[in-house]
From TrEMBL:
It comes from the Eukaryota. The keyword Signal applies. This is Hexosyltransferase. Gene3D superfamilies: Spore Coat Polysaccharide Biosynthesis Protein SpsA, Chain A. Pathway: Glycan metabolism; pectin biosynthesis. It is an enzyme of class 2 (transferase). Residues 1-22 form the signal peptide. InterPro entries: Glyco_trans_8 (IPR002495), Glycosyltrans_8_dom-fam (IPR050748), Nucleotide-diphossugar_trans (IPR029044). Belongs to the glycosyltransferase 8 family. Its EC number is 2.4.1.-. GO terms for cellular component: Golgi apparatus. It comes from Digitaria exilis.
Amino acid sequence: MSRSALQLLLLVFAAGAAVSSAALPRYREAPHFTNSAAAQCPPPLPPSCADAACSPHAAVHVAMTLDASYLRGTMAAVLSVLRHASCPESIFFHFISSSAPSPRATAEELRATVRASFPSLAFRVYPFADEARVAGLISTSIRGALDRPLNYARSYLASTLPPCVRRVVYLDSDVVLTDDIASLAATPLLSETAVAAPEYCGANFTAYFTPGFWASPALSSAFAGRRACYFNTGVMVLDLARWRRAGYTARIEEWMELQKRVRIYELGSLPPFLLVFAGRIAAVDHRWNQHGLGGDNYRGLCRGLHAGAVSLLHWSGKGKPWDRLDAGRPCPLDAVWAKYDLLRPAAGIESS
């Protein structure tokens, strides 16, 4: 290769890297939160150490996805977790990122962005190794954002996270907490129950599946003997050891494979979860998932809180608070999310 050709190649590479890096917005550094002396916390976890994932001092394990499209939400969610935790220095975050090449950001760029805003955070980024497999199992749903393979990563935490991680709190990227996540993580999971989440038995459960599903005794009998209720998979406590023993990922995939042949549902990754777990989970107080704040999946209209206490706000649905704020059309509750927004320049966040 000639010198001029080599120089051209280096320029093209540098330009590509610059475009990729420029695609990620800049975020402010978050305040540092320390363990409470009154909470009898375990020792702080070392930052920048992936081996800390197996540390016996990890008080709570949190799993989230990490990608450029929802990074702003993830950063706000992490800040809210740390701000309200009694033992913030003893929380370990597990971030699952896309393993496929992205024009917007590499996994390393995402990791560096998180580290820049949270220098003392104990976390690890995992490539979603099953992404290609999942892409082949996904059927189109009513909203394109629900068809991203990373949206199904919650079904693969048992194989993605180290075997030493037994219990983990899974959070979507469009949540903020207003309470100590340790209380959620301590939810009792009796017997061989592997999933805990708030249940909503007043919801129309039949709406989550097609008329053809309910008309088929062979299919609808999947819920026989169960008091099957809707639950939202954006906030869950998972016992991964029990999940692995029961082979739940394979069971979810079986329903996804059937969906490819016979249309039995319309809504992304939720129905397979319901087919496997509805009526078989540990119930969590509704205050831990004030969901639906993003509105419906078609128009994203403003919605208010459900009755009762609030420990977690969840902007599930089409409308995301950062998009509505940027567009100058926020919903009233988006102001709560804005307090945790780390995007530069930001409207400011009260110091701790």
